[in-house]
Amino acid sequence: MREKGPIRVFAVDDHPLVLEGIASLIEGEQDIQLVGEAANGQEAVQRYAKYRPDITVIDVKMPMMDGVQAISAIREKFPNARFIALTTYQGDIQALRALKAGASGYLLKSRVRTNLLDTIRIVFQGKSYIPPEVAAELAEHIAQESLTEREIEVLRYVASGKANKAIADRLAISEATVKKHLKSILAKLGANDRTHAVTISLRRGFLDL
After folding, report:
1. pTM of the predicted protein model
2. Confidence band, pLDDT 50/70/90 cuts, at residue 203
3. Is residue 53 domain-shared with residue 113, that is, in the same domain?
4. Mean of the pLDDT values across residues 69-75?
5. How far apart are CA 13 and CA 112, in angstroms?
6. Does residue 209 form part of some domain?
7. Looking at the structure, do residues 118 and 21 belong to the same domain, yes or no?
8. Do the beta carbons of residue 82 and residue 8 sit within 8 Å?
């Protein structure tokens, strides 16, 4: 317990059961208090000034506005705002996006019940928390060149089963350009073929089909 009261937490998730779970965890804690909730990034941005929490626990993937966009928008007005990003994805790309946006903590939803309260306390102290398995993924890929937005776009069509010509038509580019993008994608991901590239991208968080 700090001198001015418990750590004020704002929870943001589009799944009511997750919000209920967070509320249940916090209930009864003497040093942590849930002060507000939101169901998407837009609501989070709109309500942040009302609640002025010490810590915002926010889902990375949500409708309307995702968690990463919301973190960036809130930190533009409140640079000292502190966030713990929640995700079902262990991949390094989701973590990297959240951390670059300004998240101090990153927690897998499978670990919320066991790790959330301690993570809130850690981040409140001005420290950062990244799960060991996510940190290992970040370290493994830190030197690798990231995929461009266009390459991710191409890969998304590949994942949906589109052939090169169909992808070219959708993106208004030549089939040769699509092949060039695919060659770059395979090289960057260390993939053997298109299917392997999609599998790696899903695991790392480039895609979230």
Report:
1. 0.78
2. confident
3. yes
4. 97
5. 13
6. no
7. yes
8. no
